[in-house]
Amino acid sequence: QVQLEESGGGSVQAGGSLRLSCAASGFAHSNYCMAWFRQVSGKKREGVAAIGLDGSPTLWYDDSVKGRLSISRDRDENTLYLQLNSLKPEDTATYYCAAAGVECRLLLRVLGPDEYTYWGQGTQVTVSS
After folding, report:
1. CA 80 to CA 68: how far, in whole Å?
2. Tens digit of pLDDT per residue, the chain (129 long)?
3. How far is CA 28 from the centre of its chain?
4. What sign does the dihedral 69-107-7-72 (CA atoms) show?
5. CA distance 30 to 16
6. Is the Cβ–Cβ distance between 32 and 101 less than 8 Å?
C-alpha cells in the first residue's frame, strides 16, 4: 500500500526558505508521477509541480513560481522534495504530496488533483510579512 508522508513545513518570514519532503513507501515500481499541490483554506487545491520518480523532467502547473520553487526527487530514498525560496505571504498554504501510477514523461498535460491516487496528510507553510 502506497503511503506518503510530508514534513518540513513551518512558519517563516517573507524572503525565507523551506524545504519540504515527502517520504513515499509501498511503490511496486518507479513509474509514478509525483506532485506537490497546495491549498489555502476555503480555496481549491492547486498544483505546483510534478516530476517522475524515474527523473523525468519537471511539469509545472504554475510558471509564476519558477525560479523560487523547485521540485526534485531522490529515487533511492523514494523521497520527493519541494524547495521553497524567497517565500511570500501568498505562499502560505497547506502543501500536499501526491502520486499517480502513470509516467510523467508520457503526459501531454498536467494531471488534475482528482487524477492522483495517493495523497499525504499535508504540511503547513506560513509566511509572515
Report:
1. 17
2. 899 999 999 999 999 999 999 999 998 777 889 999 999 999 999 999 999 887 788 888 988 888 999 999 988 888 999 999 999 999 999 999 999 999 888 888 899 999 999 999 999 999 999
3. 20
4. negative
5. 33
6. yes
